[in-house]
């Protein structure tokens, strides 16, 4: 079978993946709660034969610094609600929602994702996150998160329970026999009867097994604990964009972990994010990138960098050099490599603007459709990616440009699909429908 490059269309802030993409002349910030805005996003991704759309999410408003409210466009619909609406506007594309295992219960999540899978005919995906920022903890009865490692332990138990709930109903359990009056065959139903460290869940689920058996599971943790959970349970991983050598090392390391867990590395996709700034000429693309970078107000640059490096730089100008002396421990938020902190540590003195621009530059691929396709192809063929999560810096213009300019180039090279052949998202990822789990600890009703 030809190996195809997988494509996911990323959506977090509706103004685009660049923090002030909403200011771009093409942006439509007055439509960020308009269903047609999102229908256009999903249909455009489907026109580009993307495998899935992917809605990122967090359970908070980033307001630890004033510019979070003053300059950031954070208002957006809740992912599962939005995806349910998008079912009616799309026919083939996967619909993946980010759902936290720290601030939900497995029964809710199993039920909602099974519903989305049924309503979409097998297109649901779950980006399992353990939640990152303390702002989220404060919305759920605490001041700070559970410890990083405990969040992953809870996540591991959470996903086991969800899978067993999805397996509640055998495929032939519903009889709906009007003559005999028997609606269901109780012998084909399994209670979950889970009693674990974090959850007690009897089951069974009040919706039949999802068409995919289990909706496709994504994760994005980059720490050893995050990678281990993904390697043991996920079908695919989203990662940061990294320089090629680091991306290859990450790819090889994570595939080795998958093998260590007794799983097939070819049935486990690694999807780095890519932020293309594309135009028909290199100069035009460079101008667009510079225009976007310049659209970020200095206060937001200083406050964004303050958060990322864990050092309060407010009150300084974006051009005032500082020496790295962090005053906040951000290790409970994330144990993925922190590039800005590494650069700050390595430099004697550095400014917030330099760090911000360097991160922007390192994360973006600026140029013609051919240049963007070259970069994607090199990583796909060079052991660094099985596909990409495309982050559009401006919306809706970014996705339109990518689909009109880059997708035809990828298709011409035979890298991506030109039409939808498989029925479900699982099949598109080359995954089998899982068999119902062995009945350890389960009882028949
Ligand atoms: C491409 C990508 C997308 C992500 N999307 C989300 C998201 O939607 N919600 C979230 O809480 N975290 C998201 N994350 C963050 C990760 O889930 C995780 O919290 C972070 O990598 C820190 O975990 P770690 O300490 O295991 O590395 C994303 C990360 C990446 C690389």
UniProtKB/TrEMBL annotation:
Segments carrying the region annotation (Disordered) are: 311-340
**InterPro entries, A to Z:** Diverse_substr_monoxygenases, Luciferase-like_dom, Luciferase-like_sf, NTA_MOA
- Cite a single GO MF annotation: monooxygenase activity
Q: Where does this protein hold FMN? A: 57, 98, 148, 152, 223
**What positions does the domain Luciferase-like occupy?**
33-384
UniProt keyword annotation of Cytoplasm present = no
Domain of life according to the entry: Bacteria
Alphabetized, the UniProt keywords read:
Flavoprotein, FMN, Monooxygenase, Oxidoreductase
Coiled-coil boundaries: none
The record's listing under Gene3D superfamilies reads: Luciferase-like domain (3.20.20.30)
- Family as reported in the entry's similarity comment: Belongs to the NtaA/SnaA/DszA monooxygenase family.
Would you tell me the protein name for this molecule? LLM class flavin-dependent oxidoreductase
- Organism in which the protein naturally occurs: Agromyces badenianii
